Amino acid sequence: MADIERPAPAELRSGEFGSAWSLLDAATNAVREMAGEWNDLVGSELFRSNVYIDDDGIGYLDVLIDEYEGYRLEPLEEVAGRFADALLGCAREAVLATEQCVSRPLRSPGGEHLPRFPLFGTVSEFVGFLDSGALSGLRPDQIQLIEQFQPFYRWHVADDVRQPVQAVVRRLFNLATAREGNARPVIAFWAHSASPMVEVDPPAVVSDLQCLPDGVLVDWHRVATFRAPPGAAGVRANPDIAFDPILNVEPWPEDPDDNIDVQCRGLLRMVEELICALERSVGLRAPLTEGHFHLVPIEDDPVWARVDICEAPDIEAGLRSSELGLATYRAGDDFIMLVQRPDGVYGRIVPVAEPLDQSLQRGTAAENASRDSASYWGLSDFVFRPGTVQRGSATREVGDGTIVCGDRGLAVQVKARTEATDQPERERAWISKNAKEGARQASGSVRTVRRHPMPHVNARGRSIIINGNAIEWVGVVIIDHDTPPDDVSAYEQCVRIPYVVVLRREWDFLFNHLRSTTAVVDYLHRIATDQIAPGEHVANYYELALADEQSSPDVSGSRIPASLGDPALRTSHPVLPIEPASAADEYGARMYRQILEDIALSPWDREESDRVNVLQLLDKLPVAERAVMGRRLLTHMSRAPHVEIGTARWDFRRYLLGNADLHLGYAVCNQFTDLHKEAFRQWVLLRHTEWITALEPDRRRLSTTVAVMLTPRHDHVRPWDTTLYAMFGEIPLDPEELAAMQRLWNNPQNMADRPDLE
Predict the structure, then answer these.
(1) Element containing residue 692 per DSSP (H, E)
(2) What is the pairing mode between strands 394-398 and 326-331?
(3) How far apart are CA 185 and CA 217, in angstroms?
(4) Is the dihedral of CA 356, 362, 368, 373 positive or negative?
(5) What is the DSSP secondary structure assignment for residue 219, as one 8-state letter?
(6) Confidence of residue 165 (pLDDT cuts 50, 70, 90)
(7) Tally of helices (H runs) and strands (E runs) in the chain
(8) CA 174, CA 249: separation in Å to the nearest integer?
(9) Could you tell me the superkingdom of the organism this chain comes from (predicted)?
(10) Start-end ranges of CATH 3.40.91 in the chain?
């Protein structure tokens, strides 16, 4: 046997995995001892042959371990057992060390939950082991890594690479199975390269001598068969065969060179790679590829720009005549909003409506574009395609679209002008007529959905039952017109629901500006009875936004309990922001939107309406806070990996919305395991319980907590995992369960005192 290659040098090993490396060294030393023991046996009379002829004249040549010399194998057998135990123990210790690095604060250090390294012959057995919770302290990418060391795993590589690897993994699995069952012996011998010779005394002769394939020798191995006359005298034979020690587990050698030296070297390399991969997974070894998550810098969004109006006296006069310092300016297709601020006049171009699909009729294209804008800048989950109802033998479409956020909805009708004229009065009459017609149609759509709950399909293609009687409705008529005139009379009193008439560019403006479907719906409900003419909505929005900004904060109507209302933590934002939701931090705004998209696209095992309800609650976060929260999460994500090994880092942010019994929570954790998910669930449940306990009893039933946790991923599939929990109303807790949560989350010793940990 050749000397075994030494595993990774000590300077490349981590202290956290010291126990695993120590056992790997023990296994390596055991291989050296086995080589010495075998060398001592070479030349001994350990093996003998046996030849005989049965009554039918069929002869057999066997080799076997001499019963008087077999005791010489005991030292080799003892060392081989130590090798197997050290090797398997090394793999187990590597998993436990990984768990301690990832989940030390949440998992007891004893390791009783993992009596051995997990090795299973089938996928179902492996999944069952995962379901037991034994690996709940590991991240999904680490569990996937362990799965790659299972005999059932199929590597997606070339056969010449895959087959040797799978052979070593199968040998490791079979070795573990044998040791667990106390099977003996650990050592067997590969009998190979035989060139047998058999003779008998004349006149008898030997015929049909057949050499049998190489094989395993544990007690005996048949080398050849032959034919000779029954009772032939002087039978003698020489098997002329070689023996090499091997591990007494499959797969058996495919060639004579696959001896115990090669087998042990392969097993040591396999387990060493397991240790290195697990060290790499917790940041103790350089990654094979560079990470891809980087903090995105804040960029200015030049939505507003300083405007020089010295040579435009009419604009200056218009600003002076406005109590709020607002004016609008039209130049061709450009519509510019002007605002007088303390340091000068600022202007913002309100873009034209998104272009239509030229392959469709204009009416259909305008309907699609209106829904697409709401889906693109809002959320597709709240935007529903036109439904259909059966009226006699006819099928009728219900509206041009529906938007529902919680208990508020919009019944949408779109009216498109296909061939506009250059006569303002004629166009004004067309808009007036079609706006009123659209309002009546919207009212009819609401009447239809109130008859009985109806399934509606949203922009993600998911069907949800909508109970029209549980929703407060506002009609919205969207006018698609290339050159709309001013001063349009678009309202009438006979429509049974309040409604708003907007130009399509104004519809796009609201969604682009607010980036929240809930905020747009709330705004349109707010102005539903104001009869704002189409073309005047942008100016009206800014009038209300400036009025909100100039109003002093009023917390008298806040529903936040006084016991939780730390004045230093109270924040009041204008309901309608002057700046677009993305102006302060485009990437922060995108980040918050991405969280909602993650939830919308994740696997879901409940009713789809439950998902939409949770999304609507998260969409209630004030517009002014969305980019801030998104940026905070980005910042915490960039910091999450930079903690000491074995430390769980949590960063939290909570909002108690004073205008609703709604509690929103956001967290970033540096690890994602079942233990961390359970700890986060307990945090959500504890904070929910603490909050509603401070509420009046009649408010607790409808109080809701929704919390989201982000955790960095390490497999480069995507940057993070998103975990969601929602708690509704009062949830009974066992006193011991509540006390355990308080020990975990309200213990000052568990809180960081570093300034970058918030």
Answers:
(1) helix 674-693
(2) unpaired
(3) 11
(4) positive
(5) S
(6) confident
(7) 18, 26
(8) 6
(9) Bacteria
(10) 362-551
Confidence of residue 756 (pLDDT cuts 50, 70, 90): very low
Sole residue written with tokens 């019963």: 67
Peptide bond before residue 203 is cis, with ω within 30 degrees of 0: yes
Cα gap 365→289, rounded to integer Å: 46
* Tokens encoding 456: 């509606």
Q: How many Cβ atoms are within 10 Å of 143's Cβ, its own excluded?
A: 16
pLDDT at 296: 40
The answer to whether the CB of 670 falls within 8 A of the CB of 643 is yes
pLDDT at 48: 93
Distance from the Cα of residue 444 to its chain's centroid? 43
Residue of 369, 307, 373, 314 whose CA lies nearest to 336? 307
pLDDT in tens, 310-330: 777 777 777 677 665 666 666
Task: Tell whether omega for the bond before 567 is within 30 degrees of 0, i.e. cis.
Answer: no
Q: How confident is the model at residue 757 (pLDDT cuts 50, 70, 90)?
A: very low
CATH number of this structure's domain 362-551: 3.40.91
Residue found by looking up tokens 């309200």 in the block: 746
Look at residues 183, 175, 239, 247 and name the one whose alpha carbon lies nearest to residue 216: 247
296 CB contacts (<8 Å, ≥6 apart)?
A: 587, 634
Question: What pTM, to 2 d.p., does this model score?
Answer: 0.78
Q: Which of 7-11, 206-210, 594-598 has the lowest mean pLDDT?
A: 7-11
* Dihedral angle sign, alpha carbons of residues 697, 701, 706, 707: positive
